[in-house]
Amino acid sequence: MIKLLFVFLSWAPSDSDSVRLETIDGKQYIIHQVEAKETLYAISRRYNVPVTVILANNPSSDGGISVGKLLRVPYTPKSKQPSTDGQTHVVAQGETLYSIARLYNVSVDDVKKWNNLTENEISLGQSLLIGKKAAVVETAPKLITQQSLSSTHTVAAKETLYSLARQYNVTVQQLKEWNNLTSDELKLGSLIYVVQPVNNRMQQPATTQSTGATMAQASVKINERMIGTEEVKEQGMAQLMEGTDGNRKYLAQHKTIKSGTILKVKNLATNQEVFVRISSVLSGSDSDVIMRLSKSAFMQLGGGEGKMKIEVTSYK
To answer: Which residues pair with 68 in a beta bridge?
Structure first.
């Protein structure tokens, strides 16, 4: 009891909505209370924990989260802060000036001052001076970070910023900021970011007329702060899973993927996407059917009568 009390008192969460720290089955969890307008993606970024990990530890959140709901977020104690006694930091994937400043317990202005920076942009592989004693700052050639293919959305007929914000569980204001939009109007066929660009760097999304060479250059890695793993894609047909009319959860059946796995499913006709959890093995289906979806997931994808063509993304 004394040991648990010491752990609780020594852990000082910086987020006002972190209720407490609990140890469950030998693992430590932050108990987070959902606030108004908060999304799973926002919670994922706050604690630097992938969305799939949060869902795996909160099975009842498959159908969405509500204000006041308590979520278990896996907690990993931070390692001892590095010394700032004059050293060099090499910028890694997904790092920003803000995250680096927090790592070394200094201010963003200090880092900019030590490196003669006038803007907040930094490049992957760039060397930054941390502390006053170091004398040399090496700057690697500036690299353009490739934005993930899965972080853009092609605008379809009748889609609006509001409908896209609901589909991807973000806000209209976030979509406008990520895409430098000054109005609520969207053009049919245009590509927009639906997750925050890496390093907050606004790059122009690829157009619908991009050449094959351009598309081949794009990385097939999804946002590391969101998932952090390699994508494996599969295309085929999907059918409605029987007996799920009253179930609000996004569930699916697949022939080879084990139960409990979280996948992303995309309707290739509408580009609508949803995350689902594998509930059981798919059997007794047509040869072209690779997945059955629960009623709520099927409708979320815009499915109608019969089959629909989908793309399934799993993560290694």
So the answer is: none
